[in-house]
Every structure is written in C-alpha cells, then in structure tokens.
Write a structure and sequence with these properties.
Strand order of the largest sheet: 9-8-7-6-10-11-12
Shape: globular
Number of domains: 3
Number of strands: 12
Low-confidence stretches: none
Helix content: 40-55%
Number of helices: 17
Mean pLDDT: 97
Distance between the termini: 22 Å
CATH class of the largest domain: Alpha Beta
Strand content: 15-25%
Structural class: alpha/beta
Bound molecules: 1,4-dihydronicotinamide adenine dinucleotide, 2-oxoglutaric acid
CATH topology of the largest domain: Rossmann fold
Largest sheet: 7 strands, mixed
C-alpha cells in the first residue's frame, strides 16, 4: 500500500498531536495552517505523496542547550536555550530570539513553523527558524543581561552564520541584547559578518528595522481597508502590548490619522480616551526600553487615563484592533466582543495572538482579519534587507527602505487576495487562507525540487 499523508484532516491532526505530546501551541499553529492547505491540495496528489505538509511540520532540527551565567550577587544561574531550525528550503534559517520565562520548546516550534510561511510571503530568500531561552530580562541589571547573552551565544555561535541561520530580536530581545550577542559572536569567531539582524546602525544595522514590524502591520491594515474604500482617518484603534511592535504600530496609526486608545503589558492595560499621541508614545518607548518600567505608570504621567489590572483591552469599543503582545492573548469571547462592538478590522502584530476559536469568529463575521504571518512580516522583511546590505557592505538610504517596506507589504496583501478568495463571495477575502496557501506553495515547490531530503 502507498504511504502518503493523504489521510483526512482530523487523522492528520491526531498524528501531529501524537508526535508532539504536551506541545499545544505547536499543534495549534499546524492545525490552523492544515485547515487551509488540505483544501488547497485536495486535487494535487504530489504534495501528499511527497508528504510535504508532514515534512514542513517536522523541524529540520532542534538544538537545546544549557546556559549558565552568574548574577550580580555571584550566584550561578542555569537556563535552557534553544534554536529551532524549521525549514531552509528557500533560504538560510531566519527568525527571532525570545527571552521570556514562558519560553518552551512548543512555543519556539510554533514560532519557527509560522516563520517559515511568513518569510516565504515576503518574497525574500529566507527559511524559517526561531530561538530563545526561559530567561527573564525584567529586573536584571545590564551586566546580568550581558553575561546571559554572552553565555547564550557561546553555544549558539556554532549553529548560526550569515548563510546558515540568521537570528534577530523578539520578545525580550531588542537592540541591547543583539549588541551583546553580536559582540560575543565576533569575539569567538573573529569574523564580522551579518550573523544577526536588528543590529545597531554603527555596526551593520539597517535603518527602519526597529519600526518595520509595527509600521508594516498598519500598512497591511491600510491595504485591507482600501479594498472597502476606507482608511484610518478618524478611526479608533485598540492595541495590546507596549513593546517594539505595539509602540511602532501606535505611531503609524497616529501618523495615518487614527486615534489609539489602549496599550498593555502582562499586568493589565491602560485606556486613554483622549488618545495616545506621539508625545505619549515617545514616553512609553523610553519607559519600556530605558527605564524598563510597567505600562501602569502611564496613568501617573497622563491624567484622564485608567489602568485595568489583569485584563486585556478587547472590551474597549474600537474600529480596528491590533494585538501586538503575545500568543493566545485574544480568545473566542474577546473576538465576539470586538465584533459586537463594531470592530471592522484586525491586524495581528504579534505571532498567533488569536486562538483558533477567535480566528473562526473573525472569519464567520466576515470582518477584515489579517493573521500575524502576513501582517507582521514587515519586521523580518527589513531584516532580509539588512542581510542584503551586509552582503553588499553598504547601508541603504531611509527613503529607499521605506518604499521597499511599503511595496513588500502590498505584495503580501496581493498574494492573500490571490489565494484567499471564497467561492460564491466575490469581494470577500479570507486572509488566513490566502497567507497560508501563498506561503505554503513557495516552500512546498522548493521542497519538491530537492526530491526526498
Ligand atoms: N520584534 C519584531 O520585529 C517582531 C515581533 N513579533 C511579535 O510581536 C509580539 C511582540 O514582540 P515585541 O514587541 O518585539 O516584544 P517586546 O519585548 O518589545 O514587547 C513585548 C510586549 O508584550 C508584552 N507581553 C509579553 N507577554 C505578555 C503576556 N503574557 N500578556 C500580555 N502582554 C505580554 C510585554 O509586556 C511587552 O509590552 C510577539 O508576539 C513577537 O513574536 C512579530 C514579528 C516581528
Ligand atoms: O527579523 C527577524 O529575523 C525575525 C522577526 C521575527 O522574529 C518574527 O517575524 O516573528
């Protein structure tokens, strides 16, 4: 009998669950993609006989390692580090590093899997990977963070390289951490290469990389609104998170004529009915990246704003919503509440912020809904442009990069339109389906070209 992955979808998902016990985030990400891909490859037997989906959902390799470091009191501390190299069919592994206590193998596997499709959507030659550690930079001194980053890179350096695997930032990893890791890589290997992106401008970083993910998510939102003859002028936005992605998304919403009502962190959310202006966003950026404080401090600075502890901001009525904090932060009931309150569009700055139930609520309501792998691809796209600049040993001008980011986000939107049509509903686009199929097709066709490897 022929061996194939052409079993029905529930049987395929059961297999994924069995092979990945105790990894709910990874199973969730595979299920969301498989729901669309199954339909697309129904009559394309070669994808089944070559077991392409099964192979994409099995990382090329997972590296797990001990990270020992010494805190300021001389105590020995031990963390677990990882790099998940999911798929390099279309280019070197590429994807961020996350330092957060919630990091597990399941979380990094889901992120590396999503990254594979996202990177394909950008049109740039990048495979998918992700890494991190269960290290919490919050409350640590700069020296402690430095020692941790150096120790992390002391193992990671042997698995990465400018043409092998190029990590970048993610939650808990910004310019400071990238600097410490790049410095350690250079020190160990004696090579100055583009092994990381998100670097400082003085040592090979790209202009607009810090802004790119948040700005890109708003460009994607504008592309979606345009299909309905709308824009952001006068519209209200609810945003979660208050880190790199959230603050830059807020900035671009304001620049586009919208009003931002909320920001959040893991302790709760702030609601500012007067609108979070550019001056207030600058305060939040400095508070988070320099003073390393909490979002609740906003209400002491700006009267009229309120802080709600332990809650997400989805109950605040809005025209558009941008989840920009973390995975599974917007659940089925939150999605229902947003739709009930008149939310017209959701653009995901974070990776997989909406759970499977929420995804179905947005799809069923036929609102404009962009999944993270399409909407937040601007960050990794500019990382890809940073790789090109490093290879050329040049730095491109800001105007050129801004235009490329706009073009890439528009291109991803067009790919979603191409593959996201729904039979019998002209004018409606299922962006989740569009992104999944467009991303899958490119990676799958490259894998087919290589034969069985
Ligand atoms: N930095 C980048 O270029 C990209 C980031 N992303 C995704 O965007 C999201 C945010 O990442 P960044 O802004 O880079 O990280 P960051 O470290 O700058 O900010 C993370 C924010 O999320 C909040 N947060 C973390 N865990 C939370 C929780 N359990 N509940 C509520 N809030 C929580 C933090 O308080 C912080 O405000 C993540 O899902 C990340 O994977 C996606 C594409 C690129
Ligand atoms: O810039 C990069 O390489 C990675 C960005 C990232 O981690 C993501 O897109 O989720």
């Amino acid at each position: 009998m022929a061996v194939t992955d052409h079993v029905d979808l529930p049987t395929f998902i059961e297999g994924v669950k069995k092979r990945n016990p105790g990894q709910p985030e990874f199973v969730q990400a595979v299920q969301e993609v498989a729901e669309d891909i199954y339909d697309f490859i129904e009559d394309k037997e070669h994808y089944h006989s070559e077991q392409i989906l099964r192979r994409i959902a099995e990382p090329d390799r997972i590296i797990s390692f001990r990270v020992c470091w010494e805190d300021d009191n001389g105590n020995v501390r031990v963390q677990r580090g990882y790099r998940v190299q999911n798929n390099n069919a279309i280019g070197p592994y590429k994807g961020g590093i996350r330092f957060h206590p919630s990091v597990t193998e399941s979380v990094l596997k889901f992120l590396a899997f999503e990254q594979t499709f996202k990177n394909a959507l950008t049109g740039l030659p990048m495979g998918g990977g992700k890494g991190g550690a269960n290290f919490n930079p919050k409350g640590k001194s700069d020296r402690e963070v430095m020692r941790f980053c150096q120790s992390f890179m002391t193992e990671l350096y042997r698995h990465v390289g400018a043409d092998v695997d190029v990590p970048a930032g993610d939650i808990g990893v910004g310019g400071r951490e990238i600097g410490y890791m790049f410095g350690q890589y250079k020190r160990i290997t004696n090579q100055f290469t583009g092994v990381l992106t998100g670097k400082g401008l003085e040592y090979g970083g790209s202009l607009i990389r810090p802004e790119a993910t948040g700005y890109g998510a708003v460009y994607f939102l504008l592309n979606m609104l345009k299909t309905r003859g709308e824009d952001l002028v006068g519209k209200t936005a609810v945003i979660s998170g208050s880190g790199n992605v959230a603050t830059h998304a807020a900035e671009k919403i304001v620049q586009s004529g919208g009003k931002v009502l909320t920001l959040s962190d893991s302790q709760g959310f702030i609601h500012d009915p007067d609108g979070i202006t550019q001056e207030k966003i600058d305060w939040v950026k400095a508070h988070k990246t320099k003073r390393r404080g909490r979002i609740q401090d906003y209400v002491s600075e700006y009267k009229g704003a309120t802080f709600t502890a332990g809650k997400t901001p989805w109950g605040v009525p809005c025209d558009v919503a941008l989840p920009c904090a973390t995975q599974n932060e917007l659940l089925g009931d939150d999605a229902r509440l947003l739709v009930k309150n008149g939310c017209k569009a959701v653009s995901e700055g974070a990776n997989m912020p909406t759970d499977l139930e929420g995804v179905h609520v947005f799809k069923d309501a036929r609102i404009l809904y962009a999944p993270g792998k399409a909407a937040n691809a601007g960050g990794v796209a500019v990382s890809g442009l940073e790789m090109s600049q490093n290879s050329e040993r040049r730095s491109w001008k800001e105007a050129e990069l801004q235009q490329l980011l706009l073009d890439i986000m528009e291109g991803i939107h067009t790919s979603c339109l191409t593959y996201g049509g729904v039979a019998g509903e002209p004018g409606y686009t299922d962006y989740v389906r569009g992104a999944n199929i467009a991303g899958f097709k490119k990676v799958a066709d490259a894998m087919l070209a290589y034969g069985v490897v």
